[in-house]
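Hi there. Long-time user, first ticket. I'm pasting a complex I've been working with (about 574 residues overall). I'd like to know whether the download I got is complete or cut off, because the file seemed smaller than I expected. Thanks.
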Amino acid sequence: MKTHLSCIPCFFKQALEAARLAGADEVTQKKVLDELARSLGDFSLSDCPPQMGKIIYGLVRKITGKDDPFKEIKDKSNKFALALYPEMKKKVEDSDDRLLTAVELAIAGNIIDYGVKNSLEVEKEIEKFLNQDFNINSKNNKVRFDYQDFKHALDRVDSILYLADNAGEVVFDRLLIEEMHKKVIYAVREKPIINDALIEDAYACGIQKIARVISSGSDAPGTILDICSEEFLKIYNQAELIISKGQGNFEALNNQTRPIFFLFKVKCPVLAQEIDCKLGSIVLWKS
Amino acid sequence: MKTHLSCIPCFFKQALEAARLAGADEVTQKKVLDELARSLGDFSLSDCPPQMGKIIYGLVRKITGKDDPFKEIKDKSNKFALALYPEMKKKVEDSDDRLLTAVELAIAGNIIDYGVKNSLEVEKEIEKFLNQDFNINSKNNKVRFDYQDFKHALDRVDSILYLADNAGEVVFDRLLIEEMHKKVIYAVREKPIINDALIEDAYACGIQKIARVISSGSDAPGTILDICSEEFLKIYNQAELIISKGQGNFEALNNQTRPIFFLFKVKCPVLAQEIDCKLGSIVLWKS
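Hi, the file is complete. Here it is re-exported in full:
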């Protein structure tokens, strides 16, 4: 997906929020914005937003000198999600359609994302999400939710490549992986980028017990194939089925031809318009 | 009021929206954003936001070649507000406290503003505003509403300088001016800037029947004294009482020592934080 002009104001907003999270003073925050402004002329709108995200958060890292501004938030998200695990596991076990509930919860986990909204009141949102009627199709007829296709696709494969998104959310991925009963390779980012899951987050959330954890090689907030490692690309190209979590991975991969199911919440108005969904929709999208 | 770093992403948003309103194609829209980005390093945060607004909308005018992108919106706002006038006049006449109702409606008129939100559904908002309980103090104890002070101040003066804000809103100002029974000078902007009222808008809304209409000399979206005309400054400095409409005028004048009552709706989170009000609050603020 290409970057829209409407993304540009949001880039400045994200850069400012990240600089603040990094503990930068006002002068340094302004330096980050000025430097981003200087880079703007070189941005190519044909690149996808995660490509821009890589540049922006790289700037923040360079100027603030803080390598991982979201470290604390990620640790908190992991702990927070782990504490929710037993309750959510019970929800899956009590469900008439365990797989469906696990899919829905895996998408619910995607609300743990400080990249778009750092003021997101995670706890309240999850509570709201857990308490709502999960019959997604009945709520919003514009939402795409290819659950039957997903179920049939699962029946035909033995193994899955699972592309992670945020820290914390990993716990929710675990619920889904536990229900699929397949051999899973779980791919996270190579280096800190926003609050995206790294190897250490995958381990903190216990994914290594049920999947092989690898890095994609990408340090962008999306699986941009051009910057992924050769090892990852080999796995990606041979995967029987790919589950891709989060908006960033969708933006990076939505034009690919591999058999991918995208699970995400639509977090920005630009993407909502692009795929003709309402902002806030939860999506299960067959490529 | 100084400009905050959080205003910067919003400047890009406003520039983009104005370029689009001016009918610019995507390449020209990008040019506007790039040019704004180039100017950013020169911006002084000690200037007030309307000073920045002047620069930003100046850029849009220069690059798109369209002198008054909001002309159509202003004409529409004037007509729309004029059509509402009889209903609102009746509301004032039926009120137990005619002046209070006129003050409230003058603030309600401030929602006709495409500068902050171009998607504002004006009609719905006015309806909602008109139908709500106008007992403002009871609704939100954080809102400042110095109505008693305003009433007493009015009792002690014969004349008022009234600083206009947006086109359309002028009709709502008329309701208030009609209730005050004072000699009024009504000051509008000198040149097109966003949807702010010009002499032509004041006349379209019939203000000249009840007040002397002048230009402040300012072509910023706020009454920035440094760029006002000498004629205006003489009137401003001698005014017995000043009524200032809108957020832009507040941002430009809130540190001044003249006897000013600011009437506005809080339209952005930065100002809301600055004055410790909720976003969307309606304010009557004694300087």
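A couple of notes from our side: The radius of gyration of chain A is 18 Å. Residues 115-120, 137-141 of chain A have pLDDT under 50 and may be disordered.
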